Amino acid sequence: MPLKNSLKEYRAKLGVNQQEMGALAGVSRQTISQIERGDYSPSVTLALKLAKLCGVSVEDIFQYEEDE
Amino acid sequence: MKNKEFTPKQQENKKEDRKALKGFWLLMLGGFLVGILVGFLSVFLKDVWRAELLNGLTKAGSIVGIYGGYVVITVLLVISIIMYKKSRREFADWDGEDEEVYNRMDTRVSYVSWFSQLMMIASYLFLATGAYVNLGDKERTKALLDASFSGWVVSIILVLGSMIYGLVASVIMQQKMVNLAKEMNPEKHGSIYDMKFNKKWLESCDEAEKFITYKSSYMAMQAGNYTCMLLWMVCLIGMLIFEIGILPLCMVLIVWLVQTSTYALRVIYFAKHPSEVMK
């Protein structure tokens, strides 16, 4: 899925590791890692949770780009 | 009379069907020809080769049935222990972030989980094989008893022993790997000894993990359907050549029916209760 994200940068600003981020968002460390690598696109609910944790909007973290 | 006009979607459907129909008819023709060949061969084999085939299989079965379980289960157990110990060592040194190390450990956990299931299946298989060889045929059982009663008793004990060995090995390896998985992923819950383990484990999975589980389950269902089709053919041949009766064929069809119907009924249920899908 064509979904770019800046989750890693925002997580670094928060000063938490993947495990801690996962615990805050109610998902596993692995899911956070997969989202950061672009291997997994989160559901709307999870995307909103992550945005709220980072204190930004969903669009600040996730950007949708059309396939060429 | 006015010709019926098709909607664009109906026209698209007809085009798709026309495209796929050639391959479909080729497959049907191939299946028909294979069926004719198998039917002819089964009559031929029954008259010519049945006795030799049955003899050979029984001889092989008498050795495999007793010792095969121990060999197969031990091989799987040794591989599982090696993989488990490797994962344990890596987990002790893991920094909690290195994705490559985590993926290696996680892959091994999945493999050992699989091998544990194989051990359990092997224990059931070899119990059945051993029981068939020692108890399944009255004439053969009488011959074994007449040859050596103590030998026959030892065979029975060995066969039962292989089943217990397989089950115990399977449960212990599953418990070890589940506990390691829970240490790797602290949000996971569930004890392998709990009857509701699968339900509790799935509940503790997040959306990405559930997606993997559901996708894998769908593929397992498809593989199951193809396997049932194949087994139906094997049971049909067995019925015609080895006179195994219709029961095995019926068992296969029951499994196929349960699998297909469970899937279909769940689809209907979730269509009516979409909020249940995300739970």
Overall geometry of chain B comes to flat
Structural class of chain A: mainly alpha
List the helices and strands of chain A in order: EHHHHHE
Strand ordering within the main sheet of chain A: 1-2
Secondary structure tally: strands of chain A? 2
Radius of gyration of chain B: 26 Å
Polypeptide structure, described:
The complex is a heterodimer of chains A (68) and B (279). By secondary structure, chain A is mainly alpha-helical. Chain A is built from five helices and two strands; from the N terminus they run βαααααβ. Chain A has helices at 7-14, 18-25, 29-37, 44-54, 58-61, and strands spanning 3-5, 62-64. In chain A, strands 1-2 form a two-stranded antiparallel sheet. The longest helix of chain A has 11 residues, at 44-54. Chain A is globular and about 35 Å long. Chain B has 279 residues and is mostly helical. Helix content of chain B is 85%, strand content 0%. Chain B is built from eight helices and no strands. Chain B has helices spanning 8-48, 50-93, 99-136, 138-147, 149-184, 197-203, 207-241, 247-272. Chain B starts with 7 loop residues before the first helix and ends in a 7-residue tail after the last helix. The mean pLDDT of chain B is 87. Chain A binds chain B through residues 17-19, 22-23, 26-31, 33-34, 37, 40, 42-43, 46, and chain B through 96-97, 99, 102, 106, 185-187, 205-209.
Summarize the structure.
By secondary structure, chain A is mainly alpha-helical. Chain A has helices at residues 7-14, 18-25, 29-37, 44-54, 58-61; strands spanning 3-5, 62-64. Chain B starts with 7 loop residues before the first helix and ends in a 7-residue tail after the last helix.
